[in-house]
Amino acid sequence: MDGLRTREWLTGDDTLTLTDEGRRRRQEIEDGTNQLAASAFAGIGDDGLRHLVNLGRDVAKALARAGMTLEAMFSRMNEESRTPDAVTAVPDRPREAG
């Protein structure tokens, strides 16, 4: 987090809040990854993409109903010693300022 604060992408407090520059840079990264990912889905067309999104949503809802949030999955993996010691927590996602 120190590197993000040094670049002034995060505020200096403990809230993990993005600065204006942080929001701008995040959007640049999001736009770039969206552009790179678009070619992977171009072959299935709009209907195929809609179907894929709906399948993903259904899976996510089923996992949530079963209590399988990311935090719960990482916790279970750590408890069962199936992950390297370096993966011990899921960091909070930075919040948008203002």
Fraction of residues in H or I helices: 55-70%
| Strand coverage percent | under 5%
Note the main sheet: 2 strands, parallel
Instruction: Note the overall shape.
Output: flat
According to DSSP, the number of beta strands is 2
Which class of secondary structure composition applies to the elements?
mainly alpha
- What is the chain-wise order of helices and strands? HEHHHE
Uncertain segments of ≥5 residues (pLDDT<50)? 85-91
Through-space gap between termini? 20 Å
Roughly how many Å is the radius of gyration? Answer: 18 Å
Number of helices: 4
Give the tally of structural domains: 1
In order across it, which strands form the biggest sheet? 1-2
> Can you give the mean pLDDT?
80
Per-chain topology:
Blueprint: H1 2-6, E1 17-18, H2 20-41, H3 45-65, H4 70-79, E2 95-96
Parallel strand pairs: 1-2
